[in-house]
Structures are given as C-alpha cells and as structure tokens.
Amino acid sequence: MSLRQLLLRLPGYFGASAPPRRLWWSPSLDTIFSVVSWRGQSSRSPAHWNQVVSEAEKIVGYPTSFMSLRCLLSDELSNIAMQVRKLVGTQHPLLTTASQRSLAEITELIHTALLVHRGIVNLNELQSSDGPLKDMQFGNKIAILSGDFLLANACNGLALLQNTKVVELLASALMDLVQGVYHENSTSAKENRITDDIGISTWKEQTFLSHGALLAKSCQAAMELAKHDAEVQDMAFQYGKHMAMSHKINSDLQPFIKEKTSDSLTFNLNSAPVVLHQEFLGRDLWIKQIGEAQEKGRLDYAKLRETIKAGKGVTSAIDLCRYHGNKALEALESFPPSEARTALENIVFAVTRFS
Questions:
Q1: Superkingdom of this entry's organism (predicted)?
Q2: Which of 7, 93, 174, 282 is least surrounded by Cβ atoms within 10 Å, i.e. has the fewest?
Q3: DSSP string of 52-64, one letter each residue
Q4: What is d(CA 160, CA 208) in angstroms, rounded to the nearest whole number?
Q5: How far apart are CA 325 and CA 232, in angstroms?
Q6: How many H helices and E strands in the chain?
Q7: Is 4 helix (H, G, I), strand (E, B) or coil?
C-alpha cells in the first residue's frame, strides 16, 4: 500500500468536492516504492492484506500500476498535462482531482527520495569483503544524485499546485524528515548504539519526525486542497500521524513475532520493543544483558532476541501499536459510514492484527 493510494482515499471519504475518478492515468513510482517502502508486512496474513488493498483500489478507482520512472518523462503524460493546463480557470471538477493526485505523487516522491538517500554507505565502515571502494563511492554518488532529482521534481510539483499552505505543510514535513533522520543517525552510531538511554517518549518524538510527519501533513494538505475547514484538516492529520506510528511499531515488531526468523537476523536496538524492554528492565540490567549476549566482540542477536521476547517489551509494543491504531480510528468516528471510511478502517485493522 503506497502513500499515493492512502492519500487518494482520504478526499473521497471526507467529502471532497470532486471524488477521484478514472478520468486520466497518472504515473506512479510503485515499482521503486514497493522495494524500498516501510519494512515488514502490515499483517501476518498476506491474503488478508491483499484483500484490503483490493478493496481500497476499488475506492480509488483504478488498480495499482507498476510503471517505471521513465513514465515521468513520457510524451503521452506530457500531452495529458498540457491538456489539463487548458482547463485552468474553468472550475472543471477534473482540476480538483488532478491537484489531489499530484499531491499524492509529490508525497511519494519525497518519501522515495529519502529512502534513496538513506542507501548511502558509510565508507569508513567498509571491509574488503564488501567490494571495491571505487564501486561504493560511485554508488553513493548515484544515490545522492537520484534522491536530489526526485526532490527537485517534488518541489516543482508543489509549486504547480499554487497553494501556499500546501507548500508550507510539505516543506515543514521535509524539515521534520531531515531532523528525524539526523537523530536516528546520531543514536545508531556504532560506538553509541548500545549505551544510548532512549525512553519511549523520546522514541515517539523521533519516530513522528522520521516516519509520521510526512503522511500526517500530506493528509492535512489533501484536505486543504479540497477546501475543507481546519477541523477536518486536523482529523486528517491525526489519522495520518497515528496510522504512521502504528505501522512503524508493527514493522519494529516483525523480528520478534515472526514464526520463522533467521538466527542471524539483526534488529535495531532503538526499535520500539527494545526501548520498552529497556524501560521496564532498567538501565543497569539492560547493559548487563547486552554484555551477556556478546561473543568475541560481536553481539549475538539471536540470543538477545530471545531475552527481549521473555520480557514485557514485545507485548507492550503490541499494545502501543493498537493504541495508535485506535487513535487513528477515533479520527474517523465523527463521519458517517461509507465505503471510503471502511477502506481506511481496514488499513488500521490490518496493521494492528497480530493473531
């Protein structure tokens, strides 16, 4: 499920002036996004998740496409864009839909650009078995240029929307992303990743910046484009915020709840279950467990994973995931039942299902 699909669903539910229709074909980055999107499945049942996606696609009005980046430069799409520009000033309903779809694609471009930039390799940590240094340096340059190219296209698309509040919202979301990634990098440095004392409140703040702000503010921007009032915009913001938080916690839980997990599988020591485990255990005992799980200077993740699973961190993370899922559902409660509301609720149910 891509950000584009989720955002396109919101205007139809909140009563946008022009619900999405199959009037023209818009390009997508789903091929890239499906590879580098949020890690982990949103449900332990692939069949259930596929059903949710299928139902959501019916609300959007067209199935997920698997077009490549070349589509961004195709003549056909350029011609479509030219024809749409001719409608400017006519108040044709198509224009509202095309603004909302453009916003969804801009959001996806920003998220994909961030993921591409995160693919940059720390050359100081390379070993001879990782490959030639020149190849790694070249790969880093390509990652930087590719990410910058996507961000440049996103900024250009934002300017074409001609809505200063939407530009401000997405610009602030990009600032939040950069700040969140900076915090993540500073706490995951090799010499600090074990000794950092991060409480769950700090974890929530950092996770919102790096994972929740973009979706939350994009949902709010979609309501702004549909000319809804501040109250509806806030509800959209709350849904996007809590939906993103719930999804992130679900992803963090996967190494601890999967039935078949590789013994060599590593996990982030600043993930939600680990942070909660440390908070329940206490700092001193946590450092002791880290020391017991080390062998020959390397951390035995399989042993440490079993230690964490025996504590309260995993069950508490599941409860926290469901809490944010319920908060996302609360943002939808004041609206009458509809197919779009059901689709949004099903996304939450899929992310918070663990049995």
A1: Eukaryota
A2: 282
A3: HHHHHHHHHTSPP
A4: 28
A5: 19
A6: 15, 2
A7: helix
Reading the block at residue 332, the tokens are 């939808």
- Average pLDDT score over residue span 331-347: 86
16 in Cβ contact with 94 (< 8 Å): no
Q: Distance between CA 13 and CA 247 in Å, rounded?
A: 21
Position 113 scores a pLDDT of: 87
What residues pair up with 294 in beta bridges, in sequence order?
Answer: 299
Average pLDDT over residues 184-203: 65
Q: Are residues 13 and 344 in contact, defined by beta-carbon separation less than 8 angstroms?
A: yes
According to DSSP, residue 260 is labeled S
**Lookup: tokens for 219:** 């949902």
For residues 250 and 248, give the distance between their C-alpha atoms in angstroms, rounded to a whole number: 5
Angle, helices 133-161 vs 164-187, to 10°: value is 150
Q: pLDDT tens digits, residue range 221-272?
A: 988 988 889 999 999 999 999 999 999 999 999 999 887 666 567 788 889 9
Count of beta carbons in the 10 Å neighbourhood of residue 251: 20
Question: Angle at which helices 283-292 and 301-309 pack, to 10 degrees?
Answer: 140
| Enclosing H/E stretch for 295 | strand 294-295
pLDDT digits (tens, 9 = 90+) for 313-325: 999 999 999 999 9
CA distances from 216 to 107, 169, 209, 235, 238 (A): 11, 10, 10, 10, 7
Burial code (b: 16+ CB inside 10 Å, e: under 16) for 318-348 equals bebbbebbebbbebbeeeeeeebbebbbbbb
Of 317, 308, 290, 303, the C-alpha closest to 193 is: 290
Pick the closest to residue 180 from 156, 214, 147, 157 (CA basis). 214
Task: State the Cα–Cα distance between residues 327 and 8, nearest whole angstrom.
Answer: 21
What pLDDT band is residue 15 in, cutting at 50, 70 and 90?
very low
Which of 8, 243, 1, 233 is CA-nearest to residue 104? 8
